[in-house]
Amino acid sequence: MIELRNLSKSFRTADGPVEALKHINLTVNDGDIYGIIGMSGAGKSTLVRCINMLERPSEGAVILDGQNLSELSDSELRQIRHQVTMIFQSFNLLMQRTCLQNIMLPLKLLGTPKKEAEDRARELLGVVGLPDKANSYPAQLSGGQQQRIAIARALATEPKVLLCDEATSALDPKTTHTILELIRDINRKMGITVIVITHQMSVVQEICNRVAILENGSVVEEGEVSDVFTNPKATATQTLVYPEMADGSVTLTSGKQHIRLTFNGAEAAGEPLVASMAMDLRIPASVHTASIRSINGKAYGYMLLEIPGGPDELARAVKYLTGHKDVLVQVTGEYGKEGVR
Amino acid sequence: MSFASAFTPEKLAEAWEIVVRDFPLALWDTLYVTVLATFFAILLGLPLGMILVACDEKGIRPWPAPVMKVINVIINFLRSVPFLILIVMVIPITRLIVGTSVGTVASIVPLVIAAFPFVARLVEGSLREVSPNIIEMAQSMGATPMQILLHVMLPESVPSLINNFTLAITTIMGYTAMSGAIGGGGLGKIAIMIGYNRYKYAVLYAAVIVLVILVQVFQSFGSWLARKCDKRLKH
C-alpha cells in the first residue's frame, strides 16, 4: 500500500517559489491500477517523481508498506527503487546496448550473477512478447516494442509497484491499447500495483480502477473510475471526461433532450445502435457529436444524441440503450446537472 | 638560396635519399610519441572529464562549487598556454619524470600535459550529450552515481568518445611536430632541422605530406570505428 500524506513540493525559480504540489493525500491499495490524470502543468510528473523520491517532497510523507520513504537516506532509497520501478514516455532505453543487456541492467546494478540475470531477462522477453529480440538494438524496434523492452526492464527486479509516466503518450492508439493490455496482464498475473500518470482520459478509462484528478498541484477529485466517469464533479474532471464541451465547439441546444453514450470497450462496434433504435422505437435520434475509435473490434469513445419528443421518448430511449454491455448511458443537460439512469 | 632552386633535379634526388634514409625512423618516432601521449592524455583526461560532468553543480554527485571552480581554472589555464611555451615551462617536471628534458621520450611529457585538459573537455562534451532522461532512468532503478557513469553514461557515449579521441590523436600529432623544436624526434624535427634550417624545402614538403597522410588515416579509421560502434544506426 502506498500512502501520500499531506505531500507538498515547491521549487525555487527566478520568479520566486512555485508550488508544484499542494497538500496531496492519496491512498493506493495493493493490486490497484491507479490513474493520476491532469492537463500538462498540473503536477503529474512531479507527483510520480515524489513517489520514488527522484524529487524529495518539501513537506509531507510517502509511505510504502508502513515505511516512510521521505526519511530514508540516499542508499536506503536505492534499495527501495528496486521495488518501485518506472517506465517513461520516451522509453529511455540504452541505445548502445541490446534489448537483453537493457533488461539485465537493473540486475547488473544489484550485482546479480550474469547467468542468472540473463536467464531472468530472457524469461521477461517472453513475458512482454518479444522472445526473438534479445540481440536486437532498440533503434531496430518500433516504439511499442521499445516500451515492451522498457517494461521488461522495469520488471527485472520483481518490483511491488510499477510507475508509468505517460508511458503510452508517444504511441499510436492501437499500440497504446496493446501496451495497456500488457500492463493490465502484469498487474493481474504478477500482482504488481500500477500507478499510471497520463493526460488521456481514455487510458484511465481502459485500465484503471481508481483515479485522482490533478489540477494546479491539487487533487480536485478522487474515486472509483466508474463513479468519476458517471458523475464528474470538478470542472477539471468534466473537461477531461467531456472534451468536446470543454473547447466550446459543441454546445447543447437548450430545451432539447440529450443522451450521452460512453463506449468503454463495447463489443457493439459493428452494431448500428442508433439506427436500430430509430427502427425499433421509431425515435429518430440525431447524432449531435461523436468520437469513437474501434480497437480490435471494440468501441471506445462517446456519442451525444439529441432525442426528439418529450420525456416519454427520452425514457424509452434510455431504457432501450441501457443494457448494452460496456455502454454507459447518461441523460445530459448542462454541466453539473446530470442525471444518470 | 631561392625557393625555386630547392627543387632542381639534383636537390630532389638528394631529398629522396634523405627520405629513404631518415623517414622510417622519424615516422616511427612520430607514431609512438603520438600514440603514447594520446594514451596518457586519455588516462588523465577521461576521469577528469567524468568529474567535470558528474561533480558539476547540477551533476549526479555534486562537489562543492569552489572545488569545481579551481579544477576549471586549472584546465583553462593549461589550455591557454601556447604549446611551445608550455614545453619550456614544464622542463622541471619532464626532468623529474624522464630524467632529461631533451629527446624523443622527453617530448611526451609536455605533450601529455598540454593534451589532457583538452581531452577532459572533449570527454565532458561527449558525456553531456547523454540525455537527462536516460540518467533519470538509471536513478529511478537505484543506480549509484558511479554506476550511472560506468554502466550508462560511458557506454551510451562510446561513438562520440571515439570521434573525440580521434580529434585528440590528430591534434596531438600536430603538436609532436612542434616538439621537434626542442629535440623531440619525428617528422616534425626533420621538417624543421633539415627541411627548413638547411634549406632543403623538398624534404620539408615531403615530411608535411607524410604527416597529412597520417592524419587522414587516423581520421578515417576513427570515423569508421565510431560509425561501426554506433548502434543507433540501423544495420
Structural account:
The complex is a heterodimer of chains A (341) and B (235). Chain A is of the alpha/beta class. Chain A has helices at 44-51, 74-80, 99-110, 114-127, 143-155, 173-190, 201-207, 225-230, 235-241, 243-246, 273-281, 311-321, and strands spanning 2-13, 16-28, 33-37, 59-64, 67-68, 84-88, 161-165, 193-198, 210-215, 218-224, 257-266, 286-295, 298-307, 327-332, 339-340. In chain A, strands 6-7-8-3-9-10 form a 6-stranded mixed β-sheet, sandwiched between helices. By secondary structure, chain B is mainly alpha-helical. Chain B has a domain at 28-186: MetI-like (MetI-like fold), CATH 1.10.3720. Chain B has 10 helices and no strands. Chain B is elongated, with a radius of gyration of 21 Å. The chains are: A alpha/beta (341), B mainly alpha (235). Chains A and B meet through helix 2, strand 6 and helix 3 of A and helix 6 and helix 7 of B.
Helical percentage of chain B: over 70%
What number of structural domains do the residues of chain A give? Answer: 2
| CATH architecture annotation name of the largest domain in chain A | 3-Layer(aba) Sandwich
**Rounded Rg of chain A:** 23 Å
What is the top-level CATH class of the largest domain in chain A?
Alpha Beta
- CATH architecture designation of the domain at 28-186 in chain B: Orthogonal Bundle
Number of helices of chain A: 12
**What percentage of residues of chain A falls in helices of 4 or more residues?**
25-40%
The tally of helices of chain B reads 10
Largest sheet of chain A: 6 strands, mixed
In the sheet with the most strands of chain A, the strands line up as 6-7-8-3-9-10
Spell out the CATH superfamily of the largest domain in chain A: P-loop containing nucleotide triphosphate hydrolases
Terminal Cα span of chain B = 58 Å
